[in-house]
Every structure is written in structure tokens, then in C-alpha cells.
Amino acid sequence: MATKAPTTTSSGIDKASQKRAPRDVQRAPRSSATEAAYTLSAAREAELLREAESLGDSTLLFPGKLARRVIWASRIQLAAERDAADLVRTPFPEDEPPLTREEIRGLRDRVELLRVTQSRWQAAQQRQERAAATFAKPAAEAAEHRQTLLRFFDLRFKKSPEGQKRLMAIRAGHGDADLVQDVSDLLLLCSEHAEAIDKAPRGEAAAVARLRELSPLLARIPEAQRSRKLRDAAYTLVVHAERRLRAAAEYWYAGTDTMKDYAPFPVSRGAASTGGEEEGEAGAEDDGAPDEDESEGGAPDAGDQEDAAPGDVAPDAGDR
């Protein structure tokens, strides 16, 4: 009986696994296992939070893709550490501080702050959704006490332009977040006129006491807004740090393959070849839900796999 020729079976090597990774991915520095477990000290986190808050409204909206963004920034930081001997000698303009090894290492801290603030924002958003269901009743009660106290201060500030201006600012607010601020402003005003409040005959002292009890409940609503603003500020710190490293690398390595290690995070898969950089424009903002390639059990598609170099550390469960 003739020997049957061997045939290829389904257990053979998958052709897709034989595809070569893009050249820029092959060259990219890779994260180490120790980086996955990296955490900020309390003192360093507080320092970075102060820096983030100092940005005010000059922040970029975080557009999502946290896991991929963390890996990308980590690769830039590792490339900068590799090239630090050159980068720290970059002749930046006089109105910019010189680049230091400490600043290069500091990108790692900024990336970790982004991870932390994103997690806190998602947790705050979940708490806000639960709190919103029970917000209506205390908000209505707070509005009644607000009117009681405004009536008292209308009379007290009848001949005080400065006092009337403060009352106008309180009345100008609308919506849940403004109600929270109104309560805070009113309580401050009441503390400045505590003796007169205590002597008032129409329940003003009781209104103040009740507003103090309601204030923590009401404050839960804008919590997610504050958390999101901090998250966006942390993201802005990462982008600014990357741009400094990229500018230094351009000085030393423009036109060479080394610049591929400093490429900006692409706006989309198609932007990777054009050098386009995400800017966090309105409308592209992360909605808080895990991305498909970051959600538990979800596998990244082929385009996403090309963004992560083989050997890169996958984000831990806290990032998903």
C-alpha cells in the first residue's frame, strides 16, 4: 500500500502568527515587569496633583484608550532613558528649563498619576449614578432652606451693596452643581453673621443647621466632575512631558530610525503613518466605559495588536 503524503492540519502554525511586526514596533523599547507594579508615593502623588491643579482650565480632554496610552508613554520614557546622555545636553530656549534625567524619569510618575486619576474618576462616576437617584429629595429641602436664608440676608443687606452683590451671585446659579455651591456660599455667609442668625425669629438657625447636614449629601454630585478634571489634568502632564522629550529627540535624531521610538500616540490607526498626535478634542472624550480592547475578556483586534510591542507588559486589572 502506497504511503500517503503528509498533509497540513489545523494544528499547523497559524499564518497570522507568522506576520512580522511593524518595524517601528520591533524597535520600540519594551516595558519591564517591574514597571507594571510601579506605584507613586503619597508625597510624589501630592506634588503632581498640585502641578496638575495649577493648570486650571488649560487642559486636554483625555480621549480614552488608557491601557494602550500607558504602554505608549512607557516606551517613550524608556527610549529617553536609553538616550539620556544626549537628551540632557539639548540646548532648549532660555525661557525653558534644561532637560534633566530626573525629568525623564518623572514621565513614569505622570503616567502612573494618569492611571490613578482615571480609576478614581470611574469610581466617582459610579457613586454619582447611585447618588443621583437619591439627590432630588435633599436638593428640594436645601432649596427651601436656601430661600429662608436669602430672605433674611435680603433684609440684612438692604443698605449694603457688597452684601447684595454676594446674594446676586448666589441667586445666579442654576442646576445641581450650582445648588451645591450656593449652599457652601450661604453657610460661609451664615458663619460670618452667626449671632444675628441665632436671634432671627423665622427658623433661620434651624435652616443653617439642616443645610450643614445636607451639604455632604449634595456634594457627591459634582464629585465625578472634579475627578474628571483632575484626570484630564494628569493626562495633560503626560502629553507635555512627552513633547519635551520628543523635541529633544528631534534635535539629536531627526531623520533617523531612532525618532520612531518617540512617535506621538496616533489619533487613529490610520494616523500612525502620518505622525498625527491625539489632542483630546471635544467629542472624542472617554465616556468612562472600558474600551473594547481593555475590557475584561475582550481581545484586541489586529490593529491594536500592532500598537503594542511583543513583550510589553499588559495593564493590570485595575486599568481595565
Please summarize what this structure is.
With 320 residues, this protein is an all-alpha fold.
Based on DSSP secondary structure assignment, what is the total number of beta strands?
A: 0
> Could you state the order of secondary-structure elements as H and E?
HHHHHHHHHHHHH
Tally of DSSP helical segments: 13
**Please, how many domains?**
2
- The low-pLDDT segments are 3-35, 269-276, 279-285, 291-320
Q: What structural class should be given to the helix and strand makeup?
A: mainly alpha
End-to-end separation:
58 Å
Q: Calculate the mean pLDDT score and round it.
A: 77
Radius of gyration using CA atoms only: 27 Å
Can you summarize the main beta sheet? none
Binned, the helix content reads: 55-70%
Region (Disordered): 1-36, 263-320
Protein name: ATPase
Biased composition (Polar residues): 1-12
Biased composition (Acidic residues): 276-296
